[in-house]
Amino acid sequence: MKKNRGRTGRKRRRKHLQGFVDGVNCSHKLEYIKLKKWLKDRGFEDSILRPAEFRETGRGLMATKALQVRDLIISLPEKCLLTTSTVLSSCLGGYIKKWKPPVSPLMALCTFLIAEKRAGEKSPWKPYLDVLPKAYTCPVCWEQDVVNLLPEPLRKKAQEQRTTIQELYLSSKAFFSSLQPLFAEDTGTIFTCSALEWAWCTVNTRTIYMKHPQRECFSLEPDVYALAPYLDLLNHSPNVQVKAAFNEQTRSYEIWATSQCKKYGEVFICYGPHDNQRLLLEYGFVATDNPHSSVYVSSDTLLKYLPALDKQREAKLSILKDHDFLGNLTFGWDGPSWRLLTALKLLSLGGDEFACWRRALLGDIISARNQQQTWNTATQICNCLIEETQRVLLQISQLRRSKETLNPQLVLVEMLSLEGLKILQKSAEVLCNWNVAT
């Protein structure tokens, strides 16, 4: 009898330990104990989720029991949410209400985060601030040497974000100075460009969508942000779906499961059907096995393959621009996108075929010659991008040896580049098969 009980006990322990192979429970850490107490004081009750470290995704939330479809994953009371209402009810409220021209809802939240972070122990939001990332892995925070390795469309967007933050900082300096009565030290040492970058990334990567009524004290930009402590520890997976919304009856933000999750498994939500370039830009990570991933073809790359002597060159460009066919041109896991092929089909129209441009935009077959030229150009572009990606991977390898401090950033670029290479190689196969088939 004893022997049997011992064997059963070992089985139970083994099963229990197996549950933690992918996730290590972190709820015993002081920062999470303080956060849970702080949330409980504001009406939050939770017995399903635990903070954990996962091998693949890092910090996330673990299920303490198996979750079924339609189970309530989390219900976060309104008192726990950080919104512009929170900001206006703080000591910043009076200054924001009288400042002209009005600040944006985004700027109000950024200002609040910087001020509360500086307040330290005196901040009522300290338990939440303590679990926020100290730094972010989004390209907007990267060294320029690493940003330069990104694919052109993504590089351009990262640089646009950086410019946005710099312009926001410069245009807000006078507003920051108006807050001087609230601080013993010079506001210039508190509201720095790097502090704003951290706050901007906090809002950009962690807010949930929650529409608020328009207020006169804010500019006309939509007020749709809410920071959701604890809930924002949930990681993204492109392969899950959840139902999420603010419940007016319970006055809580709720997330409901639409798929199952095993006990001790990581609970995921989906940020949207984003490809990895978008995920890296906006959230600072790359998802493995992302079915939405693609490689973008910039309009500049496209135009390299339009013959300079083509008499309809300008007319073709004008048509593509007018019909929004110069953007969102991609190669995917299943080959070149319909949009890319359509743009190339129009660019490949011969002089005697130009009158058929409307049919080309609808995807009609114009001629065997046009079809072949379209595939040939798509293949050329694909091969060019393959070579370019291989060059980038070589540069990454060299930088990782010479500048080890950049490794966390370089790892992300490498993941994106390796995925892009696989997509392009798959697309090259598809194009080759098409040619063989015809």
Automatic annotation (TrEMBL):
SUPFAM superfamilies attached to this UniProt entry: SET domain
InterPro entries referenced in this protein's UniProt entry, alphabetically: Rubisco_LSMT_subst-bd (IPR015353), SET_dom (IPR001214), SET_dom_sf (IPR046341), SET_MeTrfase (IPR016852), SETD3_SETD6_MTase (IPR050600), SETD4_SET (IPR044429)
Domain of life, source organism: Eukaryota
Signal sequence interval, chain numbering: none
Domain SET: 50-272
PROSITE patterns to which the protein is assigned, alphabetical: SET
Listed name of the protein: SETD4 protein
